[in-house]
Amino acid sequence: MIIQFVKGVFLELTPNGCEPTQISARPSIFNLKEQVILHEEINKLLQKGVIKELHYEHGELISPIFLRSKLDGS
Q1: Which residues, including other chains, have CB under 8 Å from residue 25's CB and lie 6 or more apart?
Q2: What does 9-68 look like in DSSP terms, one character per residue?
Q3: 21-48: average pLDDT
Q4: 31-57: b or e for each residue (b if 16 or more CB lie within 10 Å)?
Q5: What is residue 8's three-state secondary structure?
Q6: Does residue 4 surpass a pLDDT of 70?
Q7: DSSP code of 6?
């Protein structure tokens, strides 16, 4: 599989034709304040139809969730 980036640059993700595999998905650990923020933001995105709820199926790749403060501290 090859993904094309801006300006025609290519990045080969599967050397030797092997499919990508995820060795392990570490669970994200959030404090209570972060959990509340995460829940609220996910609900907003679900209501807007930007994302939809799915259930993990064996073999899928999972991207971790992370929270970062804005540069202005908000």
Answers
A1: 62, 64
A2: -EEE-SGGGPPP--S--PPP---HHHHHHHHHHHHHHHHHTSS------TT---PPP---
A3: 85
A4: eeeeeeeeeeeeeeeeeeeeeeeeeee
A5: helix
A6: no
A7: G
Token duo for residue 11: 């990045």
The tokens for 8 are: 């025609």
End-to-end CA distance of the chain: 39
CB 40 within 8 A of CB 1: no
And the tokens for 23?
Answer: 């060795």
User: In this structure, what DSSP letter does residue 7 have?
Assistant: G
The Cα 54–Cα 24 span in angstroms is: 19
| Residue 3 confidence (pLDDT) | 47
